[in-house]
Write a structure and sequence with these properties.
about 375 residues, two-stranded antiparallel sheet, about 40% helix
Length: about 375
């Protein structure tokens, strides 16, 4: 009877114009990360339903673009002469590593009278370029005074190539309390959350200046700088902090990334200790159930799904990939109205769970060995 009805449905479309869409070709590499037949079925179903997102009405952005918002002009750059003089005044212990023309430094705000204002300017410039930004002349806030600033310096061009903000959580708690931690302004958590992680560093406000984004060398140097810092301070065994998914991504992509990561890359214990201040609400265009996302554990698979949605074919954010390569786990997602409604994910990286080869890549063999031995349980 069902077959007969199919013929009827076909015949009653006589004289009508039917449209259909064809997705990209799937090959063996798309299936290799699937952990089960049900995961593969879910993946194929998602690929099919994603064809509906190709309609312009469904991929439009739901937030104001930067042009529609009132953005104050970015301040003029700090002169290369002043930047160079400030860098040269830093003590030897601030220099973490060098490679070719690139050097990575880490210093406190009071040591960076010229460098920190330029970092703030470059933050705002870089974040606006991807649909984020504070709208202020430079991106600096009250947390910068209490945080370390790790930055990548181009010796030849006398420019800052990128930077990270690092919070020594134990010291911040002693001097400012839990409200002195930046991520506490985006997510509600208490001392139990910090205690569960142990000795940790909060990472955030990371950027690589657009002109240096053409290769991954700048980002790799920043992460090797982080590795060098941790190797020298091995009691910090956990990295955590917010990463952002800008409103330049379609709402479908943001919902898909948040849903997939929450199902497959989430720390259940820590997740129960965190609440977003502005939760991500389920979108009207979401056509999947959480169960449909189970088994999609490979972030490259997720990235390929996002590429199918986005008009410019971008995948998941590069920084998110970096955290997932380090076995990062999500605790919560939050929408940040003060940052052009960027979607922030709170991610946790337990360095003791990271593969030794990966630690060697970022810390060097000697640094990784020292870190591992320091944190080895007593016999």
């Amino acid at each position: 009877m069902r077959t007969v009805r199919l013929i009827r449905e076909l015949l009653n479309k006589r004289g009508s114009t039917l449209s259909f869409r064809i997705g990209r070709t799937l090959d063996d590499s798309d299936y290799q990360s699937m952990s089960s037949d049900s995961a593969l079925t879910n993946y194929l179903r998602l690929n099919t339903y994603l064809l509906s997102t190709h309609k312009p009405a469904q991929t439009k952005r739901v937030f104001m673009s930067l042009k529609e918002r009132k953005m104050r002009p970015i301040v003029d750059p700090v002169s290369p002469e002043k930047l160079k003089a400030n860098v040269q005044q830093l003590s030897e212990e601030c220099l973490l590593l060098e490679k070719g023309e690139m050097s990575v430094y880490c210093a406190r705000s009071e040591q960076l009278p010229e460098v920190l204002p330029e970092i703030g300017r470059l933050r705002e410039l870089t974040f606006r370029d991807v649909g984020e930004g504070t709208g202020k002349p430079r991106d600096l806030d009250q947390y910068d005074d209490d945080y370390l600033h790790l930055f990548l310096w181009n010796q030849k061009e006398e420019k800052i190539m990128g930077a990270y903000r690092i919070g020594q959580v134990d010291q911040i708690l002693r001097s400012r309390g839990i409200h002195g931690i930046y991520s506490r302004s985006l997510f509600r958590y208490h001392a139990e959350f910090i205690n569960k992680m142990g000795s940790c560093l909060e990472m955030g406000r990371s950027f690589v200046v657009p002109e240096y984004q053409r290769s991954l060398s700048a980002l790799m140097m920043l992460w090797k700088g982080i590795g060098a810092y941790v190797a020298a301070n091995p009691w910090y065994k956990v990295l955590f902090g917010p990463f952002s998914i800008s409103s330049d991504y379609s709402e479908v992509s943001r919902q898909l990334m948040a849903g997939c990561l929450s199902v497959n890359n989430s720390d259940g214990v820590l997740r129960d200790l965190v609440q977003p201040t502005t939760p991500l609400k389920p979108g009207k265009e979401r056509f999947w159930n959480q169960s449909d996302l189970m088994g999609l554990t490979d972030f490259e698979t997720l990235s390929s799904l996002v590429q199918q949605i986005e008009k410019d074919k971008k995948g998941i954010p590069v920084l998110l990939k970096q955290y997932l390569k380090l076995s990062g786990e999500l605790a919560a997602f939050n929408v940040d109205p003060g940052f052009n409604n960027a979607l922030d994910g709170l991610i946790i990286v337990d360095l003791l769970k990271v593969d030794e080869r990966v630690l060697n890549k970022y810390m060097g063999a000697a640094g990784a060995k020292a870190f591992t031995e320091y944190n080895r349980p007593a016999a």
